[in-house]
Here is the input.
Amino acid sequence: MLKNSFIVLLNFLFIPVLYSANIDSEYTDTILLSKDSIQKIYSEGVRQYSLAKYNEAIDSWKIVLRNAEAIKDITNQIKTATNIGACYHAMGYHKTALGYFLKADKMLALQKEKQENYWINHINIGVCYMSLEQYDRAKEYFNSTADFNEHIIVLKNINLAQWYADKGEKKDFFLKKNKIDIAIKKMPIYQGSWNVIQLNYMITLKDLAPLKVLLEKIEPTYKTQNLNLQLAFNKGYLLVFKKLYEPISDLLLHSKEVADESNYILKDLYYDLLKDYYFQEKNLNLYHHYVKLSIETLKVMYEEKNMLYVEDFKTAQEFEELKIKIVEVNQENQAINSQLKKSQLLFRLSLFLLILGVVVLVLLIMNYKIKKKINKLSHLKAQNELLSKEIEKLELTENLKLTEEELNNSMVKIKKILLLRKQLNDLTTGKHEFSDKEVIRQIKITLISFFDNYRELTSLINKKVNVNFIIDNLRNRFDSLNEREYQIIEFILYQFTTKEIALLMDKSEKGIQYNRTQIRKKINLDPSISLEEYLNSIQ
Here is the structure.
């Protein structure tokens, strides 16, 4: 019976099943497919592989591989080539599997750093050489595999254990077994494959005590295992307990399925189990029948092990790669010529853009200078306006001072008039100690002072009369003005500022400003005319 090596499907553990439908005819075309379509086909291959439908998985992944080669997608080429190799190995086509693994190896070797995928594929190549009984080359691959992480270490140790089993090195096998049994607890996904390797080796050794322990360990999960492990379990069970674990009628139900399969490892295991069973049952007819089927299966498998084909394959593959390189060199030459033409065009375009850039730069500089001058003029204008406002402020301040002086003088004059009035009253009523002549002289002096002050008072009265006239005029024309607004108008006519009016009326400046605005609205005053100008223009 052929030993069962352990191949790892690259990225199988990390890619979820996204698509479970059958592949439509649209996917079989040679045209380039979309990224989503490729992902669906790839995921469908993963699903088929998990169901041990290796031919269907190969068909799916070959479509992905062709598209990846067409667009030179190295990542997908590596993944699909490795996965196709895993399928062929699972069916016993080790040379074909090796070809795909070697193809992936060449692409992986071009990467700057050797990551997990590189070492998985490295182990897979060793497994193929071991299945082809090229043990020295297999051992070289296993030993040269780096302990990249725990995952790689477990895979390497499992396949080294298989190598020791194939070589009959029992002590080394069990040393590896102890390490694997501990490490695999963290990676239960490899437990089934490791159980098959142990079962096959213990059956070969006919070591019944440890075989019995292993059978008892596997038995609770028997129904959940794949057909390969179930067949190996029944073979071990037959050896230990002299009977099948599963009824022969149930096992025979797989006959058509196995016969139709192109999986020669499964066929060899199935026919070998039935051969041993019917030999124990002394049913020579069925025994010879399954011996014949087993020999035919083994013949195909031993032909597959012929390494001459592998060397021919490698030579042919190198020749194909050489042809591809020649094509690539020609394409590169064409690309260089095309690039030269593009370069000339780009040079001319660059020169044009450079000249255009210089012109734009000159224009920008000129524009900057013009804007700078405009900003300077604007700044001067703003300074002039500010200066004008300052001058206006000074003029208003001077006017206020003059008004205050005029008011103070007027108050003094009024006080003088009042004093003269009192003096005249005293002289005419006899409240004095002067002689008549002296009285007349005092009256004359008083009257002269009175008339001097009276002229100034008359001017003030005239101004008051003019203010009253303007207010009466407004009352006749505008009914909407209230008494507070008339009071403010009167103060404006006496040339009081907003601030001064606010102080006189015991109000805020904002309140007085609001009243001024309301006055303008009520008399429909044009915004270009000040309220003072308008009031003083009334005749």
Remarks:
- The two ends are 134 Å apart (CA to CA).
- The chain is about 75% helix and 0% strand.
